[in-house]
Structure formats: C-alpha cells, structure tokens
Amino acid sequence: MLFLQLLLGGLQTGALYALTACGFALIFGATKVFHFAHGASFTLAGYLFLLMWNNGYPAWLGVLAAILVATGFGVAMERFVYRPIQRHEGGFFTVFVAAFGVSLVVQNLVGMWAGRGFVVADSTLSRATEVLPEVFLAPVFWVSLAVAAVLFLALGLFLTRHPAGVALRALAQNSDLIRAYGLSSHRLSLLAFALGSALAAPAAVLTAITTGMNEAVGHHVMLISMAATIVGGVGSLKGAALAGLSLGVAESVVLNFADPQWAEAASFVVLFGFILFRPSGLFGHAVAR
Amino acid sequence: MTAYLANLATLAAIFGILAATLNVAVGYAGIFSVAHAVFFGLGAYAGAQLALLLVPDALLAMLVAALVAGGLSLCLALPALRVRGEYFVAASLGLQMMATTLFTEAKGLTGGMGGLVGIPRPMVLGFEVPTLALALAALVLILLATWLMARGSFGRTLRAIRDAESAAEALGKNINAAKALAVAFACAGAGVAGALFALHMSFVNVESFTLDQSVLVMAMVIVGGTGTLWGPLLGAVLLLSLPAGLSFLPFIPPTEIGAVQQIIYGAAMTLLMIFRPAGLLGDMRTGRKA
C-alpha cells in the first residue's frame, strides 16, 4: 500500500512538474532562449499567493495575482534581459549567465523578505482522508490532476486552432520565414514568454498549498523543468509534459526502494544518461552535435 | 590582523587557481562547465585522505589530487564531446547534482555532512610550510602554464574550436583530443586547489563543493573576463573580498551577509552580460561570441 501511496503522490507532483516543464519547453522551443530564470517565476508566483492567502484575500484573487506576477516576470525578462543580449549577438552562455544572475537575485530577495525555510498555505484542500485502506488522498490531488489536464487541453487547442498559436509553432520551426509572412517575431516571443511563465503559476499555487515553498524551490523546479525538456525532446511539449510527469513519479516511487536523499540524484542520472546516449530525447528531432 | 589577511590571501590564491583553470575550459575551449566544484571537492577529499592516512606531504597531496580530479574529468569530457551549448550546461548541472549527493552519502570516503576533520598541517620534505606560500606558488605555475598554452599552438587550436568547431575540424585538428585535454587540465587544476583548500582549512565537508560554489567560481571568471589571463584572478579577489567588505557595513545584519553577497554578484552577472558581456578585463570584440 505504501507503493500505491507513493505512486499517487508522485502523480500529483508529476502533474505540477509537467506544467512548469511545459512552460519552459514552450519558451525554449519557440524562442530558443534557455530561460534559466523560469524557476524565479515559480517562486514569485508561489510567494505572492502565500502573502495574499495569509492576509485573508480570497483564493481566486491570490491565484490571479500569482498568474499576473509570473507572466509579468517572464515578459520583463524577455524585454529587458534577453532581447538586449540577443541584439548584440550574445551566445547562449551569455543568456544563461544573465538568467542565472536574475534567479540568484530573486531567490535571495525572497529569502530576505519572507524568511528562509518552508512556508505552507493552510487549506482544507490539503486535508487528507483515507480512500483505500492505508492510502490517503487530499482533494488537492484531484485538483492538481484536473488543473493540469484542463490547461494542457487548452494549450493544445490554442496551439492548433488559434492563429497566434499556429504562429508560435511556426516561430519554433523557422523564425526567418515568420518575418517573411509579415508577423513580428518579437511580439510572438513575448507571447511565448507570457504563456510559458503563466503555466508555472498554477503549479506554484498548488505547491504552496500542498508541500509548501521555500526560497530555493525555484532552483529545484528549474532543474526539473530543464531535465524534463531535454529528456522529453526539445521542441516537443508533449514530451516535456510526459517527462515531467515521469520524473515526478520516479522521484516519489524511488522512496520505496532507497533513502529520500537519492530521489533528486535519480532524476539527474536519467538526465545525464539521456544527454550521453540520446541527446534528442524521447520525442525530439535529431540535434546537431 | 596579519593572520586574517594571510587567510584571505590564501583563499584568494586558491580561488584564483579555481577561476583560472575554469577559464581554460570556458574561455579558451568554449566548454561551459557548471561543475567545477565537483573536481575541487574530489581534489580536496583525495588530498585530505592522503594527509590523514599516509603522510601530510603537500606536494604529494597536490599530485594525487590532480591525478584523481584529472582522471575523473572523463565524466565531464564525455558529454563535452557528445553535445554542445545548452545540452552540455544541462549535463554538467546533472553531474554537479549527482556529485553533491555522492559526497554527502559516501560517508566512508568523505565523512558526509560531518566532513573530514583534523587534517594535518602541510609539510614539504619534512618541513612545515604555510599554505599561503604553497598556494601562491601553485597559482603562479598555473597562470604560467595557461599563458604558455594560450600563446602556443594548443591555445590556438582551442580558440579555433570555440569559435568555429567545423572549421577547426576541417583543418585537421583533433577536436576530441583537444577538448578532453583542456577539460583534464582544468579539472586537475581544480583538484590541486582542492588539496590546498583541505590542507589550509584542516577541515572539509560537502558544503564547500555544491552548485553554489560552482556558480561562485563561474561568476569570478565571468566578472573578471572570460578568455583573459588576469580576468579570473581579478574576479576571484573581487568576489572574495565582497563578504569581508560587507561585514564592515553596519546597516547589514550579519545573518544577511550571505544573501546580500549573492544578490550583488547575481546582479553583477546579469548587468555585465547585458552591457559588457566580455567581463571587466575582456576584449569587447571577442566577448560577444563567447
């Protein structure tokens, strides 16, 4: 029964990982920017929600604020950090270092302002009940799965049916051709950043309700999103989501066989193996060496 | 006060070695490793165990540390030969996270969180010597080696690989060997720095070899200027004196110094990348492509 309990817990974590990873993959696929500050969007959204929740604001307002701050942060990063760097032909490492710098600043500012260590938004949603003998589930489990499913459905519809979504996929495939068709790749990049960062917000809110946040959580989330994007195959949102889900499940199920400190290392062994032996990931196209 | 300054100078020399060797990988070969602290740690554990179990000979400790770190640099060289760019950064991040767990869990070799304590003072040929002298000597030798290498044909090959890998390959350069050698040199140097660190502190634990440390060393290289001889050294001195300088400012509570330091160098990294990507001492023309 412990195994089932771990599996269900893993599914919940995995659904949230899938959301953030999908946001990261959307940004990376469309704009080719390795948005290493994606975890900072997550941290900011989670902490803003916590602040509003603890001050007695209604939950929907907190969620809205979380989505707004994540989106705003992503758009600001594209507008004020990545765009200027790309204007003077900065390589990927320049982008990576700049993003890493921002995430360090956000992590430490949040730590100084909100204190270090775990904080949880206390809610009835996270109160677990026994559904099967020795298996406990909280309503937030169903909420997480439902939110992830609805958002993936909506994202899929947007990318295939809406003109802007189709344009985003075109940007991912050939950014020069986008300009030839008279579309602005800058505006589309902003859209990619807005959408991708917004996807991190619901995951951050749900994490704040269940396991809680600490100031370094963005780091972990970022590494998982990156691992999921690469394992899933760059350019494939489905791959990133699936890999995020499996990483969450694996991280939890591994507890059945090993001590908890190996959980994170297990994800990175998988990542390392994929990079060595199958760099194009599960669903990706072959990449140039 | 002299003891305080000597301690700071020793640490500056040790981190100078770390930054200078990482610069060989990042600045010359274009291998963007965020796992330098792993090899720093391997060297520190190797040097410490040697001093604890056999003889506290500093030269032997540095040699063994260089061999261990240089040998295991294969873990970093393999992905460097397979993939480039974002993928390699991801692979080195993965390596760093795995190594941190291993360092914490392999208690027999590393002492885990408790670390290795009571590492004896360094000796050379039976005489006790201050680590400052050893560290400065090692730093000078490594800078000299880097300078000679950068001027020679090997340095040109590395820069050619960094700027245009296919062109270098077309000219008949053995890219795999050059990359592996650059990584091995960088990691062996980090190992030497690790052995010196262990002998200097006479205590090591996993907290000195985490991702934060790798990022700190990377920040030193970048702030100073990638691909320059003196840039990484300047970066090491600047970033190390930052916490010391901050502790003299009365309005920052002592518990927040670490956070303020990280905010300052995080912001410095971002602003430098936007306005001066080549670093403080870097050449603007070459830095743009890095």
Short description:
The complex is a heterodimer of chains A (289) and B (290). Chain A is 74% helix and 2% strand.
Properties at a glance:
heterodimer, A: ABC transporter involved in vitamin B12 uptake, BtuC, two-stranded antiparallel ribbon, 2 strands, B: 290 residues
Could you describe the 3D structure shown?
The complex is a heterodimer of chains A (289) and B (290). Chain A has one domain (2-277): ABC transporter involved in vitamin B12 uptake, BtuC (Orthogonal Bundle), CATH 1.10.3470. Chain A is mainly α and 289 residues long. In chain A, a hairpin with a 2-residue loop joins strand 1 and strand 2. Helices cover 74% and strands 2% of the residues of chain A. Chain A is globular, with a radius of gyration of 19 Å. Chain A has 11 helices and 2 strands. Chain B contains 14 helices and 4 strands. The longest helix of chain B has 27 residues, at 2-28. In chain B, strand 2 (123-124) and strand 3 (127-128) form a beta hairpin. Chains A and B meet through helix 3, helix 4, helix 9 and helix 11 of A and helix 4, helix 5, helix 11 and helix 13 of B.
